[in-house]
Structure formats: C-alpha cells, structure tokens
Design brief:
Elements lengths: L1 H31 L6 H18 L4 H29 L6 H21 L14 E4 L2 E4 H23 L1 H11 L1 H6 L4 H27 L6 H15 L4 H21 L5 H15 L14
Antiparallel strand pairs: 1-2
Helix pairs in contact: 1-5, 1-6, 1-8, 1-9, 1-10, 2-3, 2-4, 2-8, 2-9, 3-4, 3-8, 5-6, 5-8, 6-8, 9-10, 9-11, 10-11
Length: about 290
C-alpha cells in the first residue's frame, strides 16, 4: 500500500507540472481560440533561467522565480506578436498558427541549445530537504511545491476571471467574441495578455521542476505533448479541467511505471487519453453552453 500511495503522491506532483502548462494552454485557448506549440519550450526556458538566475547569479529563489515568470511571459507575448497577431489582424481563421508557433518552438530550442548547450544542467533544491515525509509516504519537495502552485494558480485564475474587469472580458471572448468586439473591447490586446500569462505559467512550472529534471534545452516537445494530453482530457477551455487532466495522466503514468514498468508510462498515459476521448470527446470539464459574465 505504501508503494501505491507513494506512486499516487508522485503522480500528483508530476501531474501538477503538466497541469500548470495545461492551464496556460486553456487560458490562451479560452481567449484566442488558438494554441502555441512553443509552450513546452517555454517550460524548458523556465528551468534554464532557474539555472542561470538561481545557480549562476545567486539570486534568492523567490526573486529568481518572479524574474523567470516575467522573462518567459515576455517571450510568450513576443510569440503572440510574431506568430498569432499578424494572422488574427487580417481575420485568418485557418490553422496557420499551428505552423507558425511550431516554427517559434524550433527557434527557441535552437537558441537555447546555442546559449546553454544540450547537456542537462543541475539545479539544487530550493527548500531545505529534498524529500517530504508524509507518514510512510515519501515525495520529492519540488512535487509538493508543484501541487501547491498548481492549486493556487487555478484558484487565482478563477478569481481573476470572476472578479476583475479584464478577467471577465477575457472569459466573455470565449463565449461571444463578436459581441465583445462590438462592445468596443480590444480583443487582440486580450490575446496578448493571455499569451503572457500562459507563458509565465509554463516558466513557473519549468522553474519548480528544475531540481528534479535538471534544466534542459531539449525537453520542450515532450512536455508540450503531455500538457496537451492533460487539457484534452480535462477540456480545452477549462483551467480546472487542465488541473484534473494533469493529475489523471500524472497518477496513471506514475502508478503504471511502478507496477508495469517505466517503458510503459507514455503508452498508459495515451491509453487513458484515448478512453476519455471515446467516452467524452469534449473533455471531462469542458465549458458548455453560454453563461452571464
């Protein structure tokens, strides 16, 4: 039983990382009806800036985290200006952004390799002990931090969308984009903000997990796919769905790798994805219908 509970706890921690990236996906999709396939690379940048700011420069962990979120958020906003905004400005409703954001992802990966190299860079633990003991259950400290950050992020986005003017406007865009534009709201500016927030969340996720995975310039595409699986399970426009989807695939992967084998982790994850999509194609917590915002 201890082995099972440890696997579940670890899965929740890993899943929280997928969820943080997925929440960024959902936040962006809710506002712009598009995705950025550079989200995994932004996660990678979070780890690389953790190495630079925390290890090399020697900044306190919290300061390094805030700077990382700011820098990666700005990179994501630049991605929107380069890869999304020109298409949205001329009313392009095709899926050209798939190619343009994939191109940005390749550029970020190449630039990261040139600056930091291809080898994993070690990042020490930010908080005391490397392991938290919960009775007989042991879980890596970064996973505990990831769970807390993921929950705080989900509640923070919920409060932002419910109680602030900008948040309600961004939520309204997902329900009735044309109506919001007719009301005089600058939808393109909202899209820029959504990309900045989504990128910052990916950067935070990369920063938090860096002590476990090390900082790597080439880890982006794996996390892009896994975070995409998380929101496919939870629902593309729901941050709570992204959190639930991340936890589901995190726990499934951790339990499966514990009892079946590490080589079966990703087949198990995508098997769960397939089952969920067959039963509920729109996702477990997808937003249906319209509501007052």
């Amino acid at each position: 039983m201890t082995e099972f509970l440890t696997a579940v706890a670890t899965g929740l921690g890993v899943g929280s990382i997928y969820a943080l990236i997925g929440v960024g996906y959902a936040f962006i999709y809710r506002t712009t009806a598009s995705f950025t396939f550079a989200q995994g690379q932004l996660f990678g940048l979070g780890g690389l800036f953790a190495y630079t700011l925390y290890v090399k420069v020697g900044l306190p962990a919290l300061v390094a985290l805030l700077l990382t979120a700011l820098i990666v958020g700005l990179v994501s906003a630049l991605t929107e200006r380069v890869a999304i905004w020109p298409l949205a400005r001329r009313g392009d409703t095709s899926l050209t952004w798939l190619i343009s954001t994939l191109g940005v992802a390749i550029i970020i990966t190449g630039a990261s390799e040139r600056i930091w190299g291809r080898h994993p860079l070690p990042v020490p633990n930010y908080i005391g002990s490397t392991v938290v003991h919960l009775g007989s259950i042991n879980i890596a400290t970064p996973y505990v931090v990831a769970i807390a950050v993921a929950l705080l992020t989900a509640f923070g986005i919920e409060a932002f969308q419910r109680f602030t003017l900008w948040g309600r406007a961004m939520r309204a865009v997902g329900d009735n984009r044309d109506g919001v534009e007719l009301a005089g709201v600058n939808v393109l500016a909202l899209g820029l903000m959504a990309f900045a927030v989504g990128g910052a969340l990916a950067g935070i996720a990369g920063f938090v997990l860096a002590p476990v995975t090390y900082a790597q310039a080439t880890s982006g595409f794996t996390y892009t796919i896994l975070a995409f699986a998380a929101i496919a399970i939870g629902g593309f426009s729901s941050h709570w769905g992204a959190l639930l989807g991340g936890w589901i695939i995190g726990v499934a992967g951790a339990v499966g790798s514990t009892y079946i084998g590490l080589n079966y982790q990703q087949p198990i994850i995508f098997g769960v994805l397939l089952v969920v999509l067959l039963i509920r194609p729109e996702g477990l917590m997808s937003v249906r219908g319209t509501r007052q915002v």
